[in-house]
Write a structure and sequence with these properties.
The protein has two helices and seven strands. The protein has one domain: 2-Layer Sandwich (STM4215-like), CATH 3.30.2000.30.
């Protein structure tokens, strides 16, 4: 299963529209955008990668209170044993009327020999 498919599967039970990269349809009052951030090999032994690290940002956009959805996103990823690398309120967007909150996640997969 790909990293993005895994993320989509974790977000599906939240019953919130999810897009990758940007939201291309008419935006509902609440939606999520997944942005891949990195795929890297940070751990080496004998110059061979031992761990594949994938990172993504989940952006929460809502015209209402973002707290419950932010907490549900964080819980879904922690329950799936992802690492939360950052959480932060980006701000209220006056032009669109959305609150914007980011949750950055990472998952570590051991390399198969």
């Amino acid at each position: 299963m790909s990293f993005l498919s895994e993320i989509q599967g974790l977000l599906a039970p939240l019953n919130v529209p999810v897009e990758t990269g940007s939201f291309t349809d008419a935006a509902p009052d609440t939606y999520l955008v997944v942005v891949p951030l990195a795929e890297k090999f940070d751990c080496f032994a004998d110059n061979l990668p031992q761990v594949d690290i994938c990172e993504a940002r989940i952006s929460v956009y809502t015209k209402g209170n973002y707290t419950a959805l932010k907490n549900a996103v964080v819980k879904a990823f922690l329950d799936a044993e992802f690492t939360i690398t950052d959480r932060r309120y980006i701000g209220y967007e006056n032009e669109s009327g959305y609150h914007h909150y980011n949750v950055d996640v990472a998952n570590y997969h051991e390399m198969e020999e």
